[in-house]
Amino acid sequence: MATKLSVNINKIATLRNSRGGDNPNVVKAAIDCQHFGADGITVHPRPDERHIRYNDVREISKIITTEFNIEGNPTEDKFVSLVLEVKPAQVTLVPDSPGQLTSNHGWDTIKEKDYLLRTIDVFKKAGIRVSIFIDPVERMAAAAAETGADRVELYTEDYAKNYKKDKAAAVAAYIKAAAIATQNGLGLNAGHDLDRENLHFFKQSVPALLEVSIGHALIADALYYGLENVIQLYKKALII
Ligand code: PXP
Fold first, then answer.
1. Which ligand 1 atom sits closest to the C-alpha of 193?
2. Is 105 a catalytic residue?
3. Which of 51, 67, 71, 153 is catalytic?
4. Which of 27, 72, 158, 178 would bridge 79 by S-S if both were Cys, CB 3.0 to 4.6 A apart?
């Protein structure tokens, strides 16, 4: 099964914001990533707009020729209205708090089931595919199937952290959670700290993977190898 590479361009916006101008230009970056072979573009607007801004999301949506994935916390009304206005191919719901450096946990799909059901329904009615961010825990994957979500995004930070120590052990929980998710009819995405080294083994171990969204490591690698080469390298890592 082919796995799509969605490039998260938040880091390009972070670099731009550090100088206050428009260099690098995030719309151009999105156009170029697609031209270089990315199968999708991911953005993660946060209420303080410290990375990608709400207006960037609107501008990027106009040039998308692949799949647009908007990540964020739906408890923010501004986020929900932005997604409903832009109508991306996919929204990925993430329970991150506003000041958090980066996402650091998935939904508790058991405790938050009613909230998720109500929220997901709003996006589904607008024709938007919904993925929810979860930890690699079998009961979270099973309960995710009862929220109305189309997919789960497995939070891969633990895998990435433990990959160098023992990659088989690092991926074990993901294999189990992935099996439960797919048996229950959910599509599978993954993301967070995936990189050029650990991506191929993850794909080999979880072949049903439909999409990975990668930002930090890919953009950091681009400093050395250039964006075009790096996108091709990551795509190659997804072939088994
Ligand atoms: N998925 C989610 C839900 C995220 O919050 C992030 C980081 O913004 C990513 C994937 C991508 O992680 P990374 O930047 O480490 O590749």
1. 15
2. no
3. 71
4. 72
Closest residue to atom 5 of ligand 1, CA basis: 103
Model confidence, pTM: 0.97
Model pLDDT for residues 31-77, shown as the tens digit of each residue: 999 999 999 999 999 999 999 999 999 999 999 999 999 999 999 89
Nearest atom, ligand 1, residue 191 CA: 10
Question: Tokens in use for 206?
Answer: 């979880």
Q: Which domains are present in the chain?
A: 4-237 (3.20.20.70)
What long-range pairs does 199-203 form, CB within 8 A, spacing at least 24?
A: 199/234, 199/237, 199/238, 200/237, 200/238, 200/240, 201/163, 201/167, 201/171, 202/156, 202/159, 202/171, 202/174, 203/3, 203/237, 203/238, 203/239, 203/240
> Per the residue annotation, which of 44, 67, 153, 211 is the catalytic one?
44
